[in-house]
What we know:
This protein is α+β, with helices and mostly antiparallel strands.
Amino acid sequence: MAPPRKRSLGLALALLLLIVSLVAGAPPAAAGPISPKPPHSPNAEDINTLYWIGLVAIVLLITAVNVALLYAVRRYRADRGAEPRQVRSGRGIQLRAGAALGLLALVLFVLSIVYTEKAREAPPTGPNGLQASSTLLAQRSLKLPPAGDPAPLRIDTTGQQWLWRYDYPNGAFSYYRLVVPVDTTVVLDLLSTDVVHTWYVPELAGKFDAVPGKINHVYFRADEEGTYFGDAATFSGASYAAMRTEVKVVSPDEYQSYIEQQKRDIDAAQQHVIEELKGGTAP
Length: 283
């Protein structure tokens, strides 16, 4: 039979391996209490990767500290009731432990810079994206880049107390709901009319601030049609909690039909107002 000290060390190591395997093997698509929402854009995937790296590092540190405590308690258990005495560690253990923690911090720092920069890059439009439909683009008088052009679809995004406005390339606009084509690189040019607001849809991108007097940018490419929701991430006044947004990802055909119809409806509403004003001022 193994000595008690070796048995306790073996149990501690087995516990460490079990925790690490559970964390590393957790399916990223299964969002839970400690899991972020599943990513649907390369940018969100980079952020989620960084999250899991940080979580694994935290679990390793917590486990290592607790294993060391359990080992110390087990080792000196037989000395219970004895006269207190000073216990010295092995030579250089503080230096080795400090160097290991410093190396871990450096690795996490470098990884955070790498993945944060990747999350801020505009991914290329895929084969099913908007720019792949050269025939459709040629048939419509839209202010969109020609097929094959690497320029992304840019949408002006304005935050104000307490809602978001989206201005599309053809002059149409919408509030609260943003409609974009699937598999297409989208760049939101963020700005604010009053205070700082934060645009945050976790399944598509990270948190980006809309600052008065400055333009910030959000990059993403949705890989699946559907609806993705975002909440307020920065306090911006009394009703900031109600400042939510919704991103609806549709096919390129649906997107173009939507912004064309939206433009027609806006023009018709404006024309109606003009006619009403003219009629009201007539003698």
